[in-house]
Design brief:
Length: 92
């Protein structure tokens, strides 16, 4: 019972972070791997939404498990669709 409560409150926290992230970070741009427009968000926001560390995201993008692009000013953007697909596969 206690376990369920913990998970629930953690989810609430994540949702709050996500709401903030959406407002400023979600952009639509071309994803080379998707061969089309995709929702891309900053790596910090991806961490917050999916509860993974930045190091994990770098590793996943290096192994091409998820799509990532680096912008001209050195910012890493993560393809939301690829991260969604990846986490669905892993968390089931
Ligand atoms: Zn993509």
């Amino acid at each position: 019972m206690t376990k369920t409560k913990k998970i629930y409150s953690r989810t609430i926290t994540f949702e709050r972070i996500v709401a903030t992230a959406y407002a400023s970070d979600l952009t639509e741009r071309y994803c080379e791997e998707c061969h089309g427009k995709a929702e891309m968000f900053r790596i910090e926001s991806a961490c917050a939404e999916f509860g993974v560390s930045m190091r994990d995201l770098f590793r996943l993008s290096e192994t091409e498990s998820i799509h990532a692009v680096e912008t001209a000013n050195g910012q890493i953007l993560i393809c939301r669709e690829s991260l969604n697909a990846f986490t669905k596969g892993v968390m089931k």
